[in-house]
Amino acid sequence: MPVHVDFSGADEYQFPDIPTGTYHGVIDSWEQRDSQSSEYPYIAVKVQIDVGEFSGQSLILRLSTSPKASWKIKGTFKALGFDVSGLGETLDIEEYLNSLPGTPVRIIIKTQQYQGNLRPYVDQLLLDQGSGPAPTSPAPTGPATPGAPLAPKRPGLPKIR
Questions:
Q1: CA–CA distance from 11 to each of 3, 5, 14 (Å)?
Q2: Which residue from 16, 52, 95, 121 has the highest number of Cβ atoms inside 10 Å of its Cβ?
């Protein structure tokens, strides 16, 4: 049976014009997706800005499951308040991912060229402790001081081992 769609009134999708910076938001959901450029799937963490001019805009943090990119998943969990000190070689992280929706975060957004257009992307998420307005400039991109906590530990969450 044919499927007919009228595209006469459809405009080309425009990515939201969100400037580089740090925004208050919340984690909406997550899902595992196949990558178009890698044999490894990635975890798509959907976040939504919930304060200010861009309130309601959603973006995706992409976390590759490639062994070479596991540092990004570990760093993200640490920044969201998980204790990752005993992290072993292999871990089923579904329990931890399922605890993310509803978590208040500070969303660090940067921009990059993609197919000739400047697009915003989520560079990092930090646990939002509700301590006032998010800064308007991007967070430093250098390495964190070894051993320095990026966010307080989240109460009631199991230790990652």
A1: 20, 14, 9
A2: 121
Is residue 135 in a domain? no
Alpha helices in 1-160 (DSSP H): 70-79, 94-98
Answer yes or no: is 161 within a domain: no
Among 120, 87, 126, 86, which Cα is nearest to 105's?
Answer: 126
What's this model's pTM, rounded to 2 decimal places?
0.71
In DSSP terms, 61 is beta-bridged to 45
Q: How confident is the model at residue 134 (pLDDT cuts 50, 70, 90)?
A: very low
Comparing 17 with 142, the larger pLDDT belongs to 17
The contacts of residue 16 (CB under 8 Å, 6+ apart) are 54, 57, 59, 120
Give yes or no for a contact between 27 and 43, defined as CB atoms under 8 angstroms apart.
no
Total of domains in the chain: 1
For residue 104, the SS3 value is strand
Look up the CATH number of the domain holding residue 88. Answer: 2.40.50
* Residue 54 belongs to a domain: yes
Q: Which amino acid is at 25?
A: G
Q: Is residue 95 part of a domain?
A: yes
Q: Which domain holds residue 55?
A: 21-127
